[in-house]
Amino acid sequence: MKAWIAFWGIFYKDLRAYYLKPPNISWGLIFPFAWGAMFLIRSGSGLHGVLSLLPGVMAVSVLFGTTSLLAVTITFEKRARSFDRLLLAPISLHLLMLAKTIGAILFGIANAFVPALIALFLTDLSAIDWGTLLWSVVLIAISSTFLGLFIAVSVREVFEAQTFSNFFRFPMLFLCGLFFPIAKLPLWLRWASYARPLTYGVDAMHTAVTRTGRLPLPLDFALLAAFCALLFLGSLRSIKARWIL
Amino acid sequence: MHPRSRQPAAVPMPRGFSADAGGPEPAIEVRGLVKRFGPVQALAGVDFTVRAGELFGFLGPNGAGKTTTINVLTGLARPDSGTIRVAGIDCSADPKAAQRLIGVVPDESNLYPELTGFENLSFCGALYGMRKREREARARELLETFGLADAGDRRFGGYSKGMQRKLTIAAAIIHQPSILFLDEPTTGIDVASARQIRQLIADLHRSGATIFLTTHYIEEAERLCQRIAFIVAGRIVRTDSLAALMQQAEGRHIVEFSLSATDRDLCRPLTAAFPDLRCESVGAGRLRVESSRPLNIGPLVHFFEEHHLEVTEARKVRPSLEEVFVRITGLETTAMQKEKERATAAQ
Question: In a 3-state reduction of DSSP, which class is residue A35?
């Protein structure tokens, strides 16, 4: 029970200190809107293309929203040594890192539904399987957040976190099937695509929105969950090795 | 005079400061602590015991291993070898259980600049599982005690360094720990704030806490601590009570001479002329002469006159912990002086 008080304390503090700050809220609204408009104009398909673009735009919004914020907040706190205060608290490292990431996960989910909300006014969304879509968004948000965490605990400076994030984010963006169908990629790039969590998230969302996913839904979800576990445990290992010297 | 008797009247401390470490068990027990950072041997077999309810000073120059020791004791660093027991708990086996009992004031004020003083304290209470009502009441009480009640609604980032330091100490005791680690609590702050903080430390100790204090201000240790360990280059060179350490300085008679400008090395001819005296140059035209017997300065003044030097001042120096420190550690007073100057410049 006491550990959960600490958990909610950290979550609430991060909400106040980072996520509910006006610049972040406006960024969380503007960024998905800009992505959506950009892809819609680029596709040239007008409002008919909204539905097919929706999964990709939602996925990208989550990816950038979570990784950007988390990489900065954790690296910044470590740099300012306020993170030491959390490491000194009598709660397990697992719970501590879950508390530090839950805000980013929720921020990412909120980011994802900004394009969905806009699409609601542009096209008919009645065919969407909202349950599957929600689970896809949640798993993408968790995996992207843990990717952000992994990046944050692997660097020392905030600018390094930003640069290192792009090293992961842009290949994901180009290989997840958003710009080019995965089936049309050369074989080695297809392998590279399937080595990234976002590919499975986008695939699951295609299934939910247009029923055009290539992989079975349980496989998408299982692989996303595996990426989440791998990135989280990898991050904890990195913290123990690099921060608790 | 006992150092603590020099303190002004105590400020009222918050209720219920835990004195759980008051049993027969030592509050902190460290044996054979070794820590390396790559090629650097930070701690080379450190041993010491802090008794329950004691204000224990850990004294040494910068880079001696003071912060590394605190980091290892509090779970922020892992020792390469050695054992640490905090209130009887083996820190290697159950670091989180030990962390419940301790409060830590790091050498930098590391609270959250975007939160107010009150929010920072309340958040720190939550980290230790305190319920909202309990931690908010305690936060208000601490703000009052530390003279920050009027600043409680202001952002921590806007506090002066002295206020930040005080709030950092308040945050470390929000959960009423039985053992408090203070790492260089007065470094980099103004004289008045440093004085207030020393008073708060003395009051915390009086209210029952065991305090582990690292500092490179010798007079701070002399004023506050009951027992002191000297650490140099990762090794403890001496651990003793302040009284025992000071006894070593008793019976030493020191006179500091200021001479008309000279850069000559006078210590060699002086000790040749007066073999039972010890001489040290402590700056341009300043000599410190030490003897185990009361010093008769007449022959010394005569000696300087023979060397065509005028004595502008002869000052009897009270033996201090600094003398003991210098003698035991072999560190030059000038080296310590440089550190003080560096710290003052940082203010």
Answer: helix
Sheet holding B40-50, edge to edge: B40-50, B28-37, B81-86, B89-90
- The alpha carbon of residue A14 is apart from the nearest alpha carbon of chain B, in Å, by 10
Residue B338, pLDDT > 70, answer: no
Please give the average per-residue pLDDT across B339-343, as a whole number: 56
* In a shared domain, residues B22 and B84: yes
ipTM metric: 0.86
CB of B40 within 8 Å of a chain A CB? The answer is no
Cβ burial B146-183 (10 Å sphere, 16+ → b, else e)? bebeebbeeebeebeebbbbbbbbbbbbbbbbbbbbbb
Rg (CA), chain A: 18
Q: Which residues of chain A are within 8 Å of residue B106 when distances are taken between CB atoms?
A: 81, 84
How far is A106 from B175, CA to CA, in rounded Å? 30
Name the residue among A84, A100, A10, A72 with its Cα closest to residue A245. A84
* A245/B77 touch (CB, cutoff 8 Å), yes or no: yes
The Cβ of residue A7 has, within 10 Å, a number of other Cβ atoms equal to 20
Q: Which domain holds residue B99?
A: 3-247
- My answer on whether B262 and B227 are in the same domain is no
Residue pLDDT, tens place only, A121-134: 888 888 899 999 99
Domain tally for chain B?
Answer: 2
Q: Do B106 and A84 touch (CB under 8 A)?
A: yes
When scoring B94, B104, B127, B178 by the number of chain A Cβ atoms within 10 A, the one with the most, hence best to mutate, is B127
Domain co-membership, B132 together with B186: yes
What's the gap in Å between the CA of A82 and the closest CA on chain B?
Answer: 5
The residues facing B241 across adjacent strands are B227
Question: B159 with B272, same domain?
Answer: no
Q: What is the pTM of this model?
A: 0.81
Q: Please determine, for residue A192, whether its predicted confidence score (pLDDT) is greater than 50.
A: yes
For residue B48, what are the contacts with CB-CB under 8 A and spacing of at least 6?
Answer: B28, B30, B56, B229, B236, B239
Pairing of strands B81-86, B28-37: antiparallel
**B63 part of a folded domain:** yes
Specify whether B104 is located in the same domain as B128.
Answer: yes
CA distance A94 to chain B (A): 13
- The pLDDT value given to residue B19: 44
